[in-house]
Description:
The chain is mainly α. It has helices at 13-17, 21-48, 56-65, 67-81, 88-105, 111-134, 140-159, 170-177, 185-203, 205-215, 217-222, 227-253, 265-275, 286-305, 312-342, and strands spanning 179-180, 183-184. The chain starts with 12 loop residues before the first helix and ends in an 8-residue tail after the last helix. A hairpin with a 2-residue loop joins strand 1 and strand 2.
Amino acid sequence: MQSLDSNALEPTAADLKNLPLRARLMRLLPVYGLPILTVLLIILFSLLLPQTFPTWLNLRAVLGEKSVIALLSLAAMIPMMTGRIDLTVGYGIVIWHVLAISLQTQYGFGWPMAVVIVLLGGCLLGLVNGVLVEVARIDSFIATLGTGTIIYAIALWYTEGRQVLGLLPPAFTGLYASNLFGLPIAAFYVLGLALILWIVSDYLPIGRNLYAIGANQRAAELNGIRTRRFVIGAFIASGLIGAFAGVILAAKLRIGQASVGLEFLLPALVGAFLGSTTIKPGRVNVWGTIAGVVILAVGISGIQQMGGAFYVEPLFNGATLLIAIGIAGYAQRRRGSVRHARKPLSSPAK
């Protein structure tokens, strides 16, 4: 899956130095347009819904509800750095939240051991995806769609369409229900993970290698990068984070049900795709992904509070995904034309 080039072309200080103010704003708009739009939406909904939207209660609700989607978006972002896509972030969370609960309620495992088993399962799923993509050379979309469908079928078989119920220890449910500084602790999981991924992707060699693979895998191989190892590692990291999101979902719902989880797939991918259109346009990035999730959360929350019907959320997510892909494609074409224009002309033969 090579629909997103991994080379950003955000304007530098040198690019903006001699430009007039209007031209500077036009160059910066693709970089910060999404955060600016988010702020404008917050102001708009706060004016339209002054009693419900700009409240501490609504902030807590949004942060808590969208934390799982944010985790899955960050998980999906990692393979996208290499030009691949991982659909199992949406399918895997179905079985992970069921497994996290059933291990405790039906098999007598303590909650720490249950969490460890789920996380190891996520790593194993990522390894299988990576091997299918890099060793078997199956397109990442097809490979992860296949493995995702299989594990979803396993979840249906295991639950037989029924809920998994039982008494869960308060320490486990506290993984979601606890608060820190008056805010849901799940929001701090997202912040902590985002900081780690930001450091790794922007300041460590592993991040540069992943972006290099996404930009041109053949060139990365010629430069000595072990592309197979990095791509498989990206899928393992994605599986690990997806499994952690499943644990948080289990602590939130306190019941396991195979019909719950697939609704997270589309918004998670939308958040990751939107992340490639802002902050560093043309390249998936951590803070862009967070901005993408935030604008989804703000938009859906505001529309629902204004009386939007039950179908508004999937409609909003689908429309935003199409817009995000369109913007990403435009950014790629724009970047290609700018890069071509920057190439120095060859000296005429004498």
